[in-house]
Recover the amino acids of this structure.
């Protein structure tokens, strides 16, 4: 399995399609539109990479996710802002204790998930923002091991949560009630199938496979659900000092990766041989 | 400009555990120095081993080879508040060495075995990754070669390990031999008052 780079979106600069200081979160909606969280803005690009609209968030934004009904959730410090598809603010969830730095958002059948990097946990809220349970805290270290400072996860079609646990060099599988089902991944400093360094993978996306990004050196890889490496998607285009590169995948298998130093979104697609 | 510290302030600073943790015996040495005097120190933002942007380069060993003191007065220091306390620390392990039966790298990085590793709290025998680890640098063994500093810096690590001049070992040359050799002018003269300000508070390991 091989991938090729097909597009570059964004970049560092001051024009509307670019990012000034940060590019932290990516999400693809059911229409194939890419939502990018950077600076204090959500930017929406069409499948060809053209900026369609953008809007401001109240605070610097760390993550973005699009619900099935089109609502756009933006993760920030101590709050989540909820917008409709046009960028109109419809709700805000604020909580000093349960929402620290919200670095990932996802959805399960009965609620909303938020990655709280401050407490190294995933919060499972109901649709009104009331806490149901925590995920990833019931262990001897009382949370996910994230020296990199980001909690990231993705939810598969069956509602299973795949959470990066970089300090353990794993992607762990959880049920929404917090039960740990298992994991893929192991440490290895030279084998591409392993996760290297102190703490990898940092970010994860799920489609028909599991997509991850790593730091130092930065690269993106894809695994099947049993943990067998399918491909190293890319490493060359990423800035060597990149870390916490958000990754998203669309229904066609195209992979979007945020370079957090160059503030660029690289788009790759699988090569059909 | 910051206000000059009184001798009482200096003593108060020294009494703080954080000062003792980061300055070791050098703290008392500094208090004995006159107000307004200067000491040599490494600027981590300039040092090629710790500054961001030199990923992949070999560690610079000039602090080891150029110091007039037999075993260099520059040593590696772990600023605990920044340390990720990782299971697999790139400054402790040679992370590209073969993986052993426990899933850990089989070789250590430090050529002088100057870093000790121990679990914080009770280790999980079934899964060693289920734990934080403390990394302590043995000053008596460290010669300031910078290998661990290079591997600890962002983005591979968190940059908690840096090179520092140990004031009780430095003989205070007018023109530091390391500073003359350093390609990045990272050896700086700083006022004693500044040297006494603790960089980090050592956290509880419980």
């Amino acid at each position: 399995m091989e991938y090729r780079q097909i597009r570059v979106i964004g970049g560092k600069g001051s024009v509307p399609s670019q990012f000034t200081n940060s590019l932290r979160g990516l999400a693809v909606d059911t229409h194939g539109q890419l939502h990018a969280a950077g600076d204090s803005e959500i930017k929406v690009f069409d499948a060809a990479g053209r900026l369609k609209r953008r809007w401001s968030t109240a605070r610097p934004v760390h993550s973005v996710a699009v619900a099935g009904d089109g609502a756009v959730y933006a993760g920030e410090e101590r709050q989540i802002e909820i917008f409709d598809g046009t960028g109109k603010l419809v709700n805000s969830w604020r909580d000093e204790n349960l929402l620290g730095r919200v670095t990932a958002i996802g959805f399960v059948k009965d609620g909303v998930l938020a990655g709280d990097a401050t407490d190294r946990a995933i919060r499972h809220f109901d649709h009104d923002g009331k806490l149901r349970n925590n995920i990833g805290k019931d262990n001897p270290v009382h949370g996910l091991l994230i020296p990199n400072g980001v909690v990231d996860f993705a939810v598969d079609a069956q509602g299973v949560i795949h959470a990066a646990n970089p300090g353990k060099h794993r992607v762990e599988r959880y049920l929404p009630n917090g039960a740990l089902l298992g994991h893929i991944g192991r440490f290895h400093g030279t084998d591409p199938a392993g996760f290297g360094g102190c703490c990898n993978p940092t970010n994860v996306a799920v489609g028909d496979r599991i997509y991850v990004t790593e730091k130092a050196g930065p690269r993106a890889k894809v695994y099947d659900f049993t943990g067998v490496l399918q491909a190293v998607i890319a490493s060359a285009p990423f800035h060597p000092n990149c870390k916490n590169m958000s990754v998203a995948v669309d229904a066609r298998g195209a992979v979007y990766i945020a370079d957090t130093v160059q503030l660029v979104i690289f788009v790759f697609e699988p090569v059909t041989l | 400009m910051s206000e000059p510290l009184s001798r009482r302030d200096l003593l108060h600073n020294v009494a703080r555990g954080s000062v003792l943790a980061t300055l070791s015996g050098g703290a008392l040495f500094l208090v004995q120095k006159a107000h307004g005097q200067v000491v040599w120190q490494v600027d981590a933002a300039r040092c090629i081993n710790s500054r961001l942007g030199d990923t992949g380069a070999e560690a610079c060993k000039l602090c080891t080879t150029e110091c007039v003191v037999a075993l260099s007065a520059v040593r590696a220091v772990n600023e605990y508040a920044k340390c990720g306390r990782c299971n697999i620390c790139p400054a402790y392990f040679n992370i590209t060495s073969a993986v052993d039966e426990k899933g850990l790298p089989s070789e250590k990085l430090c050529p002088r075995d100057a870093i000790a590793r121990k679990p914080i709290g009770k280790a999980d025998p079934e899964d060693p990754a289920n734990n934080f680890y403390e990394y302590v640098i043995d000053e008596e063994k460290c010669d300031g070669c910078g290998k661990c500093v290079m591997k600890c810096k962002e983005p591979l690590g968190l940059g908690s390990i840096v090179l520092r001049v140990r004031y009780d070992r430095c003989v205070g040359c007018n023109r530091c031999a390391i500073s003359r050799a350093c390609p990045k002018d990272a050896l700086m003269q700083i006022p004693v008052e500044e040297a006494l300000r603790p960089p980090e508070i050592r956290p509880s390991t419980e």
User: Anything to note?
Assistant: The two ends of chain B are 38 Å apart (CA to CA). The helical segments of chain B are 7-15, 17-23, 26-32, 62-66, 147-152, 177-181, 192-196.
